[in-house]
Write a structure and sequence with these properties.
53% helix, 3-stranded parallel β-sheet, mainly alpha, globular
């Protein structure tokens, strides 16, 4: 199992090379791509990078990323950690990891513009259309698609409420 963690910042969000590499990795068998959003939000990430599991820079999301990697390892017949052991190790080393990440220089670029509601809705529509076209009668959509759709709609409705 190969896992790629692509770190996205304001400075490299529009990098054609990152988009190319993410696509190349995602198309290989036995691979999984995740994005780590350092100084940007989910709404800043456009397709195709938005289709991957976005990890925001916070303790809960980073633990979720590690659990995803661990589960992928387990699915590939490699030796995965028990979830309780993973959580224990994470809790032990989180302060050190956070300290190192906090030392990362912050971008001098202006704040990345969040995508418009229309862009988010169009992406959601494309995901729904893809799910419909790939429906095989047994599985409507996988957990990653479901999570992505729910995240997009949650953001849109959150904006509408405010």
């Amino acid at each position: 199992m190969k896992v790629a963690i692509i770190c996205l910042t304001k400075d490299n969000l529009d990098s054609k090379w990152i988009h190319f590499e993410a696509g190349a990795i995602a198309k290989t068998t036995d691979s999984h791509v995740c994005t780590f959003l350092f100084d940007i939000s989910d709404a800043n990430v456009q397709p195709p990078l938005s289709q991957f599991q976005n990890t925001r820079y916070n303790e809960d999301d980073i633990l979720k990323l590690l659990k995803t990697i661990n589960s992928k390892i387990g699915l590939s017949a490699e030796k995965a950690l028990k979830e309780s052991n993973l959580e224990s190790i994470f809790n032990t080393f989180w302060p050190q990891l956070k300290a190192k990440l906090d030392e990362t220089p912050v971008s001098t670029e202006k704040e990345a513009e969040p995508r418009s509601d229309r862009d988010l809705l169009e992406e959601s529509w494309q995901l729904l259309r893809s799910i419909k076209n790939n429906y095989n009668g047994n599985i409507l959509f996988d957990k990653q698609d479901k999570s992505k759709i729910l995240d997009i709609w949650r953001k849109v409705f959150q904006k509408v409420k405010n």
